[in-house]
Write a structure and sequence with these properties.
The chain is an all-alpha fold. The chain has 3 helices and no strands. The chain has one domain. Helix 2 (22-35) runs antiparallel to helix 3 (44-63).
């Protein structure tokens, strides 16, 4: 059975272990969920790329 809280904890621990921001992974997963039922996943790579770029810019801004 699907357990959102347990899945979130697992994802958080994996992200911490691999030094990846869990917020980024959640955003990428959300993009995937948005298009998973489409026959053509039009522009998904562009959306994923923009998400990563935005995250990197935000991370850089916070570090200044």
């Amino acid at each position: 059975m699907y357990n959102l809280e347990r899945d979130k904890e697992l994802l958080d621990s994996l992200c911490e272990k691999h030094q990846v921001e869990s917020e980024l992974i959640f955003e990428l997963l959300e993009i995937e969920r948005d298009v998973r039922h489409y026959d053509r996943r039009h522009r998904i790579y562009e959306r994923l790329r923009q998400c990563v770029i935005s995250n990197l810019k935000e991370k850089k801004r916070k570090s200044l």
